[in-house]
Here is the input.
Amino acid sequence: MNYVITTGRSVDEAVEDALKKLKLSKDEVSIEVLQEASKGFLGFGQKDAAVKVSKKEDTQDILKEIFSEEFESEKSKSSKIENKTRNKEKSEPKFSKSEKSSSEDIKPSATENIEETKKEVEEVKKVKLEETSQTFNDENEDLKDEDTVEEEKEVTFDIEKFTEISNEFIYKILKPLEIKYSTEISMDKNVLNVNILGNEKDLGIVIGKRGTTLDSIQYILSLIINKHSESFVRVIVDSSGYREKRKKTLINLAEKTANRALRTGRAARLEPMNAHERKIIHEALKDFDGVFTHSEGQEPNRRIVVQIKKEY
Here is the structure.
């Protein structure tokens, strides 16, 4: 069981019930509030709080599953070499110590390969965290441009290799869904752009609610690409221009929210968003007269507050 949906008289009570069912601690889960508790009026319209509590996914487990074919092939190679070695031992009963050690050195270990892959994944995650740390600092007045890259030295990337890896990864995801699609892959400096093209209705399942599925695909593909690259590659996965449409929607939402705050004279709070979407809102309103923005709360429920500038 990866998640449960529970209800209670309060959010805390519902969360506590979910943790008991999952037999996990609060640090091992992510919590999504589906409905706040409401007392109603005179006993009518009372509503319980509802929450969705999900077990946090381990990136290493995901990658282990993705690379399972690779590990299985390594295991088969290992077993073949072991069989050959045993046959040699039968035909040649006496071996010198040096010969034995050389045969053992040749024998690859699937466990060692998994451990090496884990270490590489951890290195990629560290680089990923360093890259996204600029985005998470969205309260800073001098918002940094996401596309700015420090040009310390020119690095060449194997675009053909990245294209092959990306196409194979997308194929494995979309084949079971029986969706007709095509890919458009390009590279600009250290940014790999992967665009999935096809019928927008069919590709809705690839995008997910507010792009959450697309973000997950992007994150995992980024780990795989960087596993095969000496220098860091920023991966952007899009589907039929969704990200540009979402950006326009967010800018429009930001302007409407700012106008509402000015009209009502009260601060306006937006729904929880990821760091990238919050940055779009901050950028859209940084020069908007009469308001300023800041973020409050913790991930994944961190949200933007649009407040009025007070004149003294």
Q: What stands out?
A: Residues 93 and 255 are 82 Å apart (CA to CA). Strands lie at 3-8, 29-35, 49-55, 181-188, 191-198, 234-239, 268-269, 291-296, 303-308.
